[in-house]
Design goal:
The protein has 472 residues and is of the alpha/beta class. It has 14 helices and 20 strands. Helix 4 crosses helix 9. The longest helix is centred in the N-terminal third of the chain and has 19 residues. Bound molecules: uridine-diphosphate-N-acetylglucosamine. Uridine-diphosphate-N-acetylglucosamine binds next to strand 14. Keywords: Nucleotidyltransferase, Transferase.
Length: 472
């Protein structure tokens, strides 16, 4: 297929009612023209038209029939306990056999945090300032030592942070992982529109582009060739996780095992909500299909509704965005065109330019898909309840709840829990505690491996020593 000429490109945009993107063409430097042309060639005008039509249709979501999901609970019966033991053994075997690949989604912008850089570069270690990326790397590597496998890690970035993310990993020597086991892939960027469906310009020669949401992971895994690499390497299941919680456990044998045993296509971890107002999505059945109901989509009544028998919130299954996904499930979605996940609209004030080219703010719209909408396409899915205190402490806000301060406090608390009962260490002696996951993730491991601690400014840190980390 030959590349259409600039005239043809222009005609296509004119015809689509988007000719204004060429308004300043004659004023642009050649290099700016090239930038704009490159961006315009990447625009899917049919998709833009669909997005425009969405804006014209009513925003009010159709009333749905919502119900809480079944889940594998933290408070287990003896039978469930036995099932959990069996599943964890299966999960450990799958890890050891190299069947699990790790997928981190880190394409979003850390704007709420007020941090100018890839969110994963944010420093969160309570003693060493170890970054979020470094925590994730340490957990993956700890699992690779424990179960004995060579971990493959797929990191999704977006055009906005790809260069910086790669440079950060390189500068940190890939956190001790081998470079050839790391795969970076980028998600798509889409033009934001104004309220009338017109493409917004960020400047005379640039569109205002935004990442297409974490639902874009599935298409990007396919388009980047990552799924093929996984197939070649024998990876059958993906452990999907978000960048923002340093407590996340991407290599959890119980979760992997329950998901595999059920033959599930995609499974999810949840935590009980902190309270009715916690701004997490909840897993639930929407008209009988599993999905995630965002905080803003749950009416006040439903947010507060309680289960009569237990007194717990009825919609209590807080989504921590940790999923197990079968590789062939993504392949089948990608090949059948079913990757067409529903579009979610985010209305934002967007920095743009007016007709004269002067900077202005516009009430605009960004379009995203969400990975959890693929849950509706599963035939079988496991929902596993896990302990918030051990697995979920996201860094979302600059201060207050879910902030760097709360995440650091949680890492110190977990460090103190790991130290408890050790004859040589007393957590109360330190203002901050940081235990690298490669040293220990359980008190037993800490007792057998943590000989040396390094004291830093009233805090203490335990890091893997030269002799190597946790024994298998
Ligand atoms: C998300 C979930 C919410 C869940 C909460 C748990 C959505 C819409 N909601 O909320 O149900 O309870 O996490 O922490 O996701 N990302 C990309 N590309 C994008 C957009 C996001 O890679 O285009 C990544 C981010 O880097 C981040 C993750 O997805 O790792 C979550 O994105 P974010 O926008 O922070 O979601 P939340 O609103 O916190």
């Amino acid at each position: 297929m030959s590349i259409p000429s600039l005239e043809a490109l222009r005609a296509d945009f004119e015809e689509a009612g988007q000719g204004h993107v060429f308004r300043h063409w004659a004023e642009l430097e050649p290099s700016q023209q090239r930038t704009l042309e490159r961006q315009l060639r990447a625009v899917d005008l049919a998709l833009v038209a669909r997005h425009g039509a969405l804006l014209q249709s009513s925003d009010a979501a159709a009333a749905s029939n919502l119900a809480p999901p079944d889940f594998f609970p933290l408070n287990r019966s003896a039978e469930q306990e036995a099932q959990a033991r069996q599943a964890a053994a299966l999960g450990a075997n799958l890890l050891a056999a190299g069947k699990i690949g790790f997928v981190l989604v880190a394409g979003g912008q850390g704007s709420r945090l007020g941090f100018d850089g890839p969110k994963g570069a944010f420093e969160i270690g309570p003693v060493t300032n170890k970054s979020l990326f470094a925590w994730h790397a340490a957990r993956i590597q700890a699992a690779s030592y424990r179960y004995g496998f060579d971990p493959l890690w797929f990191v999704m970035t977006s055009e906005a942070n790809d260069d910086e993310t790669r440079a950060f990993f390189e500068a940190q020597d890939y956190f001790g992982l081998s470079k050839q086991n790391l795969f970076f892939f980028t998600q798509d960027m889409l033009p934001a529109l104004d309220a009338n469906g017109r493409i917004l310009l960020a400047s005379k020669h640039e569109l205002f582009l935004a990442p297409d949401g974490h639902g874009g992971t599935l298409a990007a895994l396919s388009a980047s060739g990552a799924l093929e690499v996984m197939a070649e390497e024998g990876i059958e299941q993906l452990s999907y996780f978000q960048v923002d919680s340093p407590l996340t456990r991407p290599a959890d044998p119980l979760f992997i095992g329950l998901h595999a045993e059920a033959g599930a296509q995609m499974s999810s971890k949840v935590v009980p909500k902190r309270d009715a107002h916690e701004k997490v999505g909840v897993l639930g059945l929407v008209d009988g299909k599993l999905g995630c109901i965002e905080y803003s989509d749950l009416t006040d009544d439903l947010r507060h509704a309680r289960n009569e028998a237990t007194g717990e919130l009825l919609f209590n299954a807080g989504n921590i965005a940790a999923h197990m996904i079968r590789r062939d499930f993504i392949e089948s979605l990608a090949s059948g065109g079913a990757l067409d996940l529903p579009w979610h609209i985010a209305r934002k004030s967007i920095p743009s330019i007016d007709a004269a080219g002067a900077p202005t703010q516009v009430d605009g719209v960004k379009f995203e898909t969400f990975v959890f909408d693929a849950l509706a396409r599963t035939r079988s899915s496991v929902v596993l309840e896990v302990e918030r205190a051990q697995e979920f402490s996201p860094v979302k806000n600059a201060e207050g709840s879910d902030s760097p301060e709360t995440a650091r406090a949680d890492l110190t608390r977990i460090g103190a829990e790991l130290m408890a009962g050790h004859p040589d260490w007393n957590a109360a002696d330190f203002t901050a505690i940081e235990i690298d996951p490669r040293v220990a993730e359980t008190p037993e491991e800490f007792r057998t491996t943590a000989a040396h601690g390094r004291k830093v400014n009233g805090g203490i840190v335990f890091e893997p020593d030269q002799e190597g980390p946790v024994a298998g």
